[in-house]
Design a protein that fits this description.
globular, 20 helices, mainly alpha
């Protein structure tokens, strides 16, 4: 297929180096957007803490693991092209990514025309903007989304250009290569240039980035699956033992993840439980489950509090008060099984597992557990939580996160943020620790290993 034209503008500015702290903050904000939730109470700190521990290198923005190979092959292809420099690298890389997207879209259209399932090409990044004229790349480039995975899993390595921006700023194609492709290694009279960066991947398929490409899909070839598994197994052990992702990669050839029902959580998946047992992480996995349920209550209480503030600050002419979130909170609090799991969580152990939880949120978590114990003793959730004490605790957390955009504040700004508040304004659910993305990764890995 013909290479699509790219919609972009050339900037006189080069790459600006971003600190690790700023980059981590940006990734955290993107994680929240990927979750489809505005994290008013900051419980995604718990989500990220356990997800990074169990599944290092993953992100909610990831779709299919074969993108790791595509991104590396694009960088290696660019390194061999004449005229690619730090000043035009982004534009040339965007063109290369558009070629990949075009190949994937062509495969999808071909499969759809045959009325066959399109699972092998589901998860194309940027498919929504590819159909624009001219096509354009998505705001979050594929290599940015997978950069942490490439580094953490050993697909990319460099002693001097670990960060993406630094590699782009110092780009020299002659100093970038694939591990195993050293040239002149046996010649005594050749002084080899020090490598700026290396990519540890198999060779790209024939016809890569050519007009003769035969289309792509996300199904890992047997050799690629073995390669990915070996990369995941090389992840450094954490203090208490191997991470869950490495163990799951080791065991998934015999025990694939459960794809149905889609609502199944990671702690109920047979493969994950086997992996946690083998990695001696069952206790931490159980704490993650307990923290997920407790966070569900935090979100429910927050939504009910906003609803309560709307009612108590509304004019007498307001229609019948909205009671959706308070009734939802009541139902959740009366769910004894869920409540018992949330109450079983040791907050001391949680704070040791996830040390970045802010102090104000720590107080909220303690307050929620105290309140749930009162509900277990027979009190009603609305009477326990819809009061000024709970409001002050939750408002403090939200104001520290959102400033003037806090809905719980009884100010003009807060009132403006509450305009139009209804049952669809806030999502109330638990934490899944990127299980959807990890399940897809392990399912692709399992299918690829069966072909090896």
């Amino acid at each position: 297929m013909a290479r699509p034209a790219i919609s972009s503008t050339t900037s006189p500015l080069g790459w600006i180096e971003i600190s690790d702290t700023a980059l981590q903050r940006l990734r955290s904000e993107l994680e929240q957007k990927g979750q489809g939730v505005v994290d008013e109470m900051g419980v995604l700190a718990i989500h990220a803490g356990y997800a990074d521990y169990f599944f290092p290198g993953t992100s909610v923005l990831q779709t299919r693991p074969r993108y790791l190979f595509f991104a590396c092959w694009n960088f290696l292809w660019l390194a061999r092209q004449r005229g690619v420099s730090a000043t035009n690298l982004l534009k040339r890389k965007d063109e290369a990514e558009l070629w990949v997207t075009g190949q994937l879209v062509a495969t999808r259209k071909r499969i759809s025309a045959l009325n066959e399932p399109t699972a092998s090409v589901d998860g194309i990044i940027g498919i929504q903007v590819f159909d624009e004229e001219p096509p354009r790349v998505p705001a979050q480039r594929v290599d940015f989304i997978y950069w942490t995975a490439m580094r953490r899993w050993g697909f990319y390595r460099s002693r001097i250009a670990q960060e993406r921006a630094r590699l782009f700023n110092r780009w020299r194609g002659s100093a970038i290569g694939r591990v195993g492709d050293d040239i002149g290694e046996t010649a005594d009279d050749v002084i080899r240039e020090e490598r700026l960066a290396e990519f540890l991947v198999p060779e790209a398929p024939s016809g890569w980035q050519s007009e003769d490409g035969e289309g792509l899909d996300f199904e890992l070839k047997g050799a690629e699956a073995v390669w990915l598994r070996d990369r995941l197994l090389s992840i450094e052990d954490v203090a208490e033992g191997p991470c869950l992702l490495a163990k799951a990669a080791e065991l998934c050839v015999e025990s694939p993840p459960q794809l149905e029902p889609s609502s199944i959580r990671l702690w109920d998946d047979v493969l994950i439980r086997q992996s946690a047992k083998s990695a001696m992480q069952l206790d931490r996995l159980e704490r993650a489950r307990q923290a997920s349920y407790l966070s569900h209550y935090v979100r429910a209480i927050y939504a009910a509090l906003v609803e309560w503030v709307v009612e108590t600050t509304a004019s007498p002419r307001r229609d019948l008060p909205l009671r959706y979130y308070r009734e939802l909170l009541g139902d959740l609090a009366e769910d004894r099984a869920m409540r018992d799991v949330a109450l079983a969580l040791s907050l001391h152990s949680l704070f040791a597992d996830v040390p970045r939880i802010p102090g104000a949120l720590q107080k909220c978590l303690h307050h929620v557990q105290v309140g749930l114990r009162k509900v277990a003793g027979g009190e009603k959730a609305e009477a326990v939580f819809m009061n000024n004490v709970t409001h002050r605790l939750f408002e403090l957390v939200e104001r520290r996160r959102k400033g003037g955009r806090a809905r719980l504040s009884r100010t003009e700004q807060g009132a403006a943020r509450r305009i139009g508040f209804d049952r669809n304004t806030i999502n109330v659910y638990d934490l899944d620790y990127r299980w959807g993305q990890v399940r897809s990764l392990l399912a692709d890995l399992h299918r690829g290993l069966t072909r090896a």
